[in-house]
Design goal:
Layout: H1 2-5, H2 9-20, H3 24-35, H4 42-46, H5 48-57, E1 65-71, E2 74-80, E3 102-109, E4 114-117, E5 121-123, H6 132-136, E6 138-141, H7 144-157, E7 163-168, H8 178-189, E8 201-205, H9 209-221, E9 231-235, H10 241-247, H11 250-253, H12 256-265, E10 275-281, H13 289-299, E11 305-310, H14 324-336, E12 340-343
Parallel strand pairs: 4-7, 7-8, 8-9, 9-10, 10-11, 11-12
Antiparallel strand pairs: 1-2, 2-3, 3-4, 5-6
Bound molecules: iron/sulfur cluster.
């Protein structure tokens, strides 16, 4: 079953043809049955042979929900990946406890639909100072099937029938696992399955220029596939090199100058709603006048929307959360300079589901 979730529709059709000698109808119906939102079971009732075929293929278990936390409708769930036969064994040392073998996902109810925040990796190698996942180090990449298992669980185990928005903003740097997230995007957006349009899918990066360039090249090479309608969300948090490098060590690999150049060259900075800037407000660290000037300089000439994120302290942090006056002052400053800017509400904050807090065990 897990293997099937990692296949695009053309791959599934080819697999069914090669392994079972069945025509395109079977592979196509299997894909629709796996993901289809409407009238699940239609194929089953109309074709007893297909019922048996489907049941035989999907009888093996998927990774289990080993932990679920809920608050005000927001649900964080952990899927245990490495216990599951057939997955890539984790390279975590024996001292890492079971939780490090899990993906973490968050299902967030919005006004008219649900958003699902997905993990692309277990842990992360980039070690951002404010991020609990970064403190774990990288355990391993998740396969496309393991990413889709998070979606499948949200949709069919947790019953999120109104799932219409996907953000790759959970554990991991998505562009560090480019092929898997791209395949998951193709599966998610296939209209014969879940049919979530690419314009409802956001990929969040800490500034991985290699991934931004690869995605930009793909947009140019395959214009009909609409990859340019994805949202790119950049966790910037500071536009002063020394400050950013101390917060986000990825800045030493991909310096701000290079990051600005590759964003300028990408389609996302030229399209409305293409590029979102995530900016963490840490009092005295990222909200001083010099920080705001540097931010405006960095964004000059690009079409962006800015999300301000009040810092959520994690255990052991020396920084505090900003007060409402500090948040409002920064928001007003950027708004008066002509930027579309909003303050993001961190649903699920108290259960560690807010950005940069997945993978953490306790609050400050
Ligand atoms: S913020 Fe993103 S890139 Fe940085 S350590 Fe956390 S998961 Fe990794």
């Amino acid at each position: 079953m897990l293997d099937l979730l990692g296949m695009t529709r053309p791959e599934l059709i080819a697999y069914v043809a090669e392994k079972f000698g069945k025509g395109e109808f079977y592979g196509d119906a299997l894909f629709r049955e796996l993901y289809g939102n409407s009238d699940r079971g239609r194929e089953r009732s109309s074709s007893p042979a297909f019922v048996k075929f489907y049941s035989d293929l999907t009888s093996s278990p998927l990774p289990e929900v080993v932990r679920k936390e809920e608050e005000a409708g927001t649900v964080k769930f952990l899927l245990e990946m490495d216990k599951f036969p057939g997955t890539t064994p984790g390279n975590s040392p024996d001292t890492i406890i079971g939780r490090s073998r899990c993906s973490e996902s968050v299902l967030i109810p919005m006004k008219n639909y649900s958003t699902l925040c997905l993990s692309s990796q277990i842990g992360c190698r980039f070690g951002c100072r404010f991020c609990a996942t970064g403190q774990m180090g990288l355990v391993r990449n998740l396969s496309a099937a393991e990413i889709m298992a998070q979606v499948w669980t949200a949709r069919f185990t947790l019953g999120a029938s109104d799932l219409q928005n996907i953000v790759f903003m959970g554990m991991g740097e998505p562009f560090d696992n480019f092929d898997s997230i791209l395949k998951a995007i193709d599966i998610l957006s296939d209209e014969r399955g879940l049919g979530i349009p690419k314009r409802r899918i956001s990929v969040s990066t800490a500034g991985h220029c290699g991934g931004i360039e690869k995605l930009s090249a793909l947009c140019a090479r395959e214009p009909g596939e609409n990859y340019h309608t994805l949202h790119l969300s950049l966790s910037l948090h500071s536009a002063i090199p020394e400050v950013r490098n101390s917060l986000m060590p990825i800045g030493k690999i991909y310096p701000l100058k290079q990051l600005r150049q590759c964003l300028q060259a990408s389609p996302f900075s030229r399209i409305k709603d293409g590029l979102y800037i995530e900016y963490l407000i840490i009092p005295g660290v990222t909200d001083r006048p010099s920080d705001i000037d540097a931010l405006k300089n960095f964004l000059d000439g690009m079409q962006v929307k800015i999300n301000l994120i009040p810092y959520n302290p994690v255990k052991g942090s020396s920084w505090r959360a900003p007060c409402p006056e500090e948040i409002n002052s920064l928001w007003l400053n950027l708004k008066e300079s002509g930027y579309y800017c909003r303050t993001r509400t961190s649903k699920g904050e108290t259960m560690m589901a807010a950005c940069g807090q997945l993978g953490s065990r306790s609050r400050a």
